[in-house]
What we know:
Blueprint: H1 4-30, H2 35-63, H3 66-81, H4 90-118, H5 126-151, H6 156-171, H7 189-192, H8 196-225, H9 230-280, H10 285-293, H11 295-313, H12 319-348, H13 351-372
Helix pairs in contact: 1-5, 1-6, 1-8, 2-3, 2-4, 2-12, 3-4, 3-6, 4-12, 5-9, 8-9, 8-12, 8-13, 9-10, 9-11, 9-13, 11-12, 12-13
Amino acid sequence: MPYWRLSSFYFFYFATLGALVPYWGPYLKSLGFSAAEIGNLMALILATKIVAPNLWGWIADHSGRCMGVVRLAAFLTLVFYTGVFFGTGFWWLAGVMAGFSFFWNASLPQLEATTLNYLAGRPGHYGRVRLWGSIGFIVTVWALGPVLDRYGVPTLLPVLWGLILGIWAASLAVPEGACATPRAAQGRLRGLLRRPEVVAFLVVCFLMQASHAPYYTFYTIYLGEYGYSKSLIGFLWAVGVICEIGVFLALPRLQGRWGLSWLLLGSLALAALRWLLIAFFPQHLGVLLFAQVLHAATFGAYHASAVHFVHRFFTGRHQHRGQALYSSVSFGLGGAAGSFYSGYSWMWWGPAATFLVAAGLALLAFVLARLFIRPSAA
């Protein structure tokens, strides 16, 4: 199978993320919502990750048709997202966002398991496929900033519709046979979830994503309040993802030299540093640029090591549910909890205190990983 079939899905999925994450908050703000309401709405998108990946992962594991699940989820994402064109009230948008995100969040974990199975025996090649997601994010976030500056934030809505259409089209190109998984018995899933290193790993992932929530929810709004244009803010987002691509390309060497455990620990420590820099130096463009360079570690190295940990912990018939559980606990539960606390923290205590909380969560994740996730687990 040509690897562009997998890469194109990553491209459109993360291009959608590149439009949604930096600019959906400003769109909601343009409708007159408060910081707490924006935080709650963003938390709703992430909260669906708690349920959706596990439900669809169970269906994929038991039906053996994981790409059928991905295609159906992508199509229903497009159907439900269309609702944004028909209302702007809080509860209407809450329903629409819950609907489209329930299906959108279901597709990626299944595709991750498919990719890792297809690349079995070539673990370093994951980064070469996944980097196209980063390229999609860069293209969207960088190009969309000037467009929104010129034509207004509502232009975001049709752009997102077109990108979601691309996700569905890309899912049609991946054959069902690409996601064949080894069916070797591994024991009950419940037994896996009693292992201390697995529990610690999932808690670490929860804390890491909760620490990212203020960045994903309010970073664009935060910099806008300091006078940065959307074009410059889009450039800063893009810088981070460009550095992320570098990590994906260098992943085979990094993994061979340091191992997954040390890559994970380094990313957690640098996340704490990154949030401190954003908290205290938003007026210094050079510091912000350096903080964005750290995205190479806080997302690139972190995510690459995390998905490989999941692939090693959850083998055989548990692979799809393992990736789904990782997505649910980290991006879902962690992201939703983070968006919820950051909305109220932002409103009550301000941006600096909110990013300080984020730094504390990343530091706590580092301590737990150091204590419970041994190099032998990698």
